[in-house]
From TrEMBL:
InterPro entries: Knr4/Smi1-like_dom, Knr4/Smi1-like_sf. This is Knr4/Smi1-like domain-containing protein. Gene3D superfamilies: SMI1/KNR4-like. Transmembrane segments: none annotated. Residues 20-158 form the Knr4/Smi1-like domain. The lineage of its organism: Bacteria, Bacillati, Actinomycetota, Actinomycetes, Kitasatosporales. It comes from Kitasatospora paracochleata.
């Protein structure tokens, strides 16, 4: 079985593990009522808070600035305020129709939990598979259309980094060469630190 987590870690290069804190994950997962995917937590612990290739942002639950838990709460609150009346939504704009959900909820065990976002107005959520055996990636474009990807977060990120359309059709944000990593400032006086992953032959 292909190890997408290992491939992503190689593509991004050595991570600092600067904020790795198991207790921060325990607190966040208790708040959500469910565990987050292990590969997602491994990537976040290795690199976050970070912006990847100038678009995709990963936050961390143990930091005061760019805090994942706060971002999840804020994102869920914003999306919960949307009018989810099916009569006003196109079929691809209704998560119930796209993902087979009974109701639209955010930040709950049986709902949609935000994992990441881009500066293009795109959001990456996770949801449990219908049979409860694992997770799937649920991505929404800036125009409100939802798409399902039945794969792990690590596989989704790998495919995102090699330029596949994994936030809907024509959503590729491919950058040739090493992956660009912007480490986000952790205090008001700090600046973003830009580094690059290793050469990847692209």
């Amino acid at each position: 079985m292909r190890d997408y987590l290992a491939e992503v870690l190689v593509m991004l290069g050595p991570g600092g593990q600067s904020f790795a804190d198991p207790e921060a994950w325990v607190r966040l997962e208790a708040e959500l009522g469910t565990e987050l995917p292990e590969d997602y937590k491994a990537i976040v612990d290795a690199y976050a808070p970070i912006r990847i290739n100038e678009h995709l942002t990963l936050l961390h639950p143990a930091t005061e600035r760019f805090n994942l838990g706060k971002d999840i709460r804020d994102t869920c609150q914003a999306w919960a305020a949307v009018n989810w009346d099916p009569d006003r939504l196109g079929e691809d704009e209704d998560p119930r129709a796209v993902f087979g959900l009974k109701e639209v909820t955010f930040g709950t065990k049986d709902g949609l939990i935000p994992l990441s976002s881009t500066d293009l107005g795109e959001y990456i959520f996770m949801a449990t598979l219908p049979d409860g055996t694992g997770h799937r990636i649920c991505a929404v474009e800036h125009d409100g259309a939802w798409y399902e990807y039945r794969m792990s977060f690590a596989e989704w990120l790998y495919r995102y980094l090699i330029g596949e359309d994994v936030i809907g059709p024509n959503s590729s944000a491919f950058y040739p060469g090493p992956v660009l990593l912007d480490r986000l400032p952790m205090s008001p006086g700090d600046r973003t630190v830009r580094t690059y992953g290793p050469d990847r032959g692209m």
